[in-house]
Design a protein that fits this description.
This protein is of the alpha+beta class. The protein has 4 helices and 5 strands, in the order E-H-H-E-E-E-H-E-H. It is globular, with a radius of gyration of 16 Å.
């Protein structure tokens, strides 16, 4: 199998992404499908798709735990000039431990560099080494940053 990374919205299975995020991702548990679809519509999607070697998309599974299909997803929220936020990064459980998350993080870094974005942020509870491996580092002055909490997102 070959892993292909893409920003093409046509490669995103929104129903599957919703199931992953709303049922298994600690930061998005219970997120509505409508809210998630709006979030993806206003972001650059980052997707990892597993394809059979030497073949097109024939024979791919639907991503429900079988080999093939969409195996990881993320969103890049950006003005495409000065700032980007990498979020909703999720790797299908049976694809974890194969470097897919690191590949997706590397792909995200390539995308923001190609845009010339000055600063890209993310938040993670448990994958610091994955992101450090592609150049992310802790904030120099976290006390300078603030957040405006929203409702239900």
């Amino acid at each position: 199998m070959t892993v292909r990374y893409s920003t093409d919205p046509a490669d995103v299975d929104l129903a599957l992404a919703h199931r992953w995020l709303s049922e298994d991702a600690y930061w998005a548990l219970g997120r509505s499908r409508a809210l998630q679809d709006r979030a993806f519509a206003n972001s650059i999607p980052l997707v990892a798709v597993e394809e059979p070697d030497g073949a097109g998309t024939e024979g791919l599974a639907d991503g429900d735990g079988e080999a093939g299909g969409m195996i990881a997803i993320a969103r890049l929220v950006t003005d495409r000039a000065t700032f980007a936020w990498l979020c909703d990064v999720y790797v299908r459980p049976d694809a974890r431990g194969r470097g897919i998350g690191s590949g997706l993080a590397r792909f995200a870094a390539e995308q923001v560099r190609a845009l010339g974005v000055k600063r890209t942020m993310l938040a993670t509870a448990d994958a610091h080494s994955v992101y450090a491996g592609v150049g992310f580092e802790p904030l120099d002055e976290p006390a300078r940053w603030m957040v405006l909490p929203g409702q239900g997102a």
